[in-house]
Amino acid sequence: MCSPPPTGSGSISQGLLSRRGARVIGAVSAPGKAAAAEAVGARHVIVRGADPDELTRRALDLTGGRGDVVYDGIGKDTSEAGLAALRPRGMSSWSVPPPGPCHRSTRVPRAPRLALPHRPTLVDRATDPEELTARAADVFRWLREGVLKTAIGGWYSFDRAGEAHADLQSGTTTGKLLLQPGH
């Protein structure tokens, strides 16, 4: 399961994973985002509703609890469903802090089965300047080739940064929200 599209890491992950043959399950916050998730490579899309158990039930239905990897870009609202969808000793990777009272904690939420948690950082992926340069070149090439796509969902002046954050947090936005200097 990979979430969320298409604001950034979710859409990029889904595109790269599906391109490599993975069966991608996307989780979105609104029905209007389902088509965008499918467009970037999700084979299945789950719309998160008010009932968090529904997301878990759908994830289990689609994976049978045998998912190999969960890439979670949302955190608190999706972590339990992602863990339930994993096979024993499956890998769970968060690009946001895991849920818990201490937001920047590395605490792992209680899992129904043993899961191997991972919190990736750039240092994990590029250990020296040459590797970083090569990986950056790959990303820019994929953007030029259309393998990776990014959408701009809105422009905000710096004095509206709080509004941009609230819009992003609401789950109603699609695409990157950019702060524009000098406006």
Write the SSE topology.
Blueprint: E1 2-3, H1 9-19, E2 25-28, H2 34-39, E3 44-47, H3 52-63, E4 67-72, H4 79-85, E5 86-94, E6 115-118, H5 122-125, H6 129-145, E7 152-157, H7 161-170, E8 176-180
Q: C-alpha Rg, in Å?
A: 17 Å
Cα separation of the termini: 39 Å
Helix-strand sequence: EHEHEHEHEEHHEHE
Q: What does the overall shape look like?
A: globular
The CATH homologous superfamily of the largest domain is termed NAD(P)-binding Rossmann-like Domain
Low-confidence stretches: 1-7, 99-109
Major sheet description: 4 strands, parallel
| Helix proportion range | 25-40%
Placed side by side, the strands forming the largest sheet appear as 1-4-5-6
Number of separate strands: 8
How many individual domains?
Answer: 2
Count of DSSP H/I helices:
7
What fraction strand?
15-25%
Q: Which CATH architecture of the largest domain?
A: 3-Layer(aba) Sandwich
> Structural class, from secondary structure content?
alpha/beta
Q: What is the CATH topology descriptor of the largest domain?
A: Rossmann fold
Average predicted local confidence, pLDDT: 78
* Name of the level-1 CATH class of the largest domain: Alpha Beta
